[in-house]
Amino acid sequence: PVLRLLEAQLQDQRREHEEEMEALRNQVDLMQEELEKQQQAFLQTLQLSPEVQVEFGLQQEITRLTNENLDLKELLEKLEKNEKKLKKQLKIYMKKVQDFEASQTMAPVERRPHERNMQVAVQRKEKDFQGMLEYYKEDEPLLIRNLIT
C-alpha cells in the first residue's frame, strides 16, 4: 500500500512537471516569435529614412503608453470596486457597533440585579465570623450548651 501511494505521488509529480515544462516551452516559443517580430521591425526601421525612423519610434512609444494606460485604467476600476466593497462592509460593521451600543444602553437595567448580588457578597464579607460556624452572638450560650450535650 505504501509503495503504491509513493508511486501514485511520483506519477502525479511527473505529470505536473511535464505540464509545467509544456507551459514553459509554449512561453519560450511565444517569446521567440515576439523577438523575431521585434528584430524584423528593427531591421525595417534601420532601412527607413531618419524622419520615418523617428515617426515609427513615436508610434511605438504611443502604442506602449496606450497599452500601459489601459492597464492602469483596469487597475483603477478594480481598486474602485474594492473600495465600494470595503465601504459596504464598513457600513455593516458600523451598524453592528451601533446596535451593540444600543443594546449596552439597555443592559444597565439587566445588570442591576447582578450589582445587588455583588453588594450582598460584600456585606457578607463584612460580617464578623469566628471559627468555622456562623452564628449570632446572642445564640452563643445555646450553641455551647448544645455542643456539650
Explained architecture:
This protein has 149 residues and is an all-alpha fold. It is 89% helix and 0% strand. It has a domain at 7-47. The protein contains three helices and no strands.
Report the sheet with the most strands, covering strand number, pairing sense and barrel closure.
Answer: none
Using the CA coordinates, give the radius of gyration.
Answer: 42 Å
Mean pLDDT, to the nearest integer, reads: 84
Number of helices: 3
Low-confidence stretches: 120-124
Give the N-to-C terminal Cα separation. Answer: 81 Å
Residue share in β-strands: under 5%
Morphology: elongated
Helix content: over 70%
Strand runs, count: 0
Q: What structural class do the secondary elements suggest?
A: mainly alpha
What characteristics describe this protein?
3 helices; mainly alpha; 149 residues
Summarize the structure.
This protein has 149 residues and is mostly helical. It is 89% helix and 0% strand.
Which helices and strands appear, and what pairs or packs with what?
Layout: H1 2-47, H2 50-126, H3 140-148
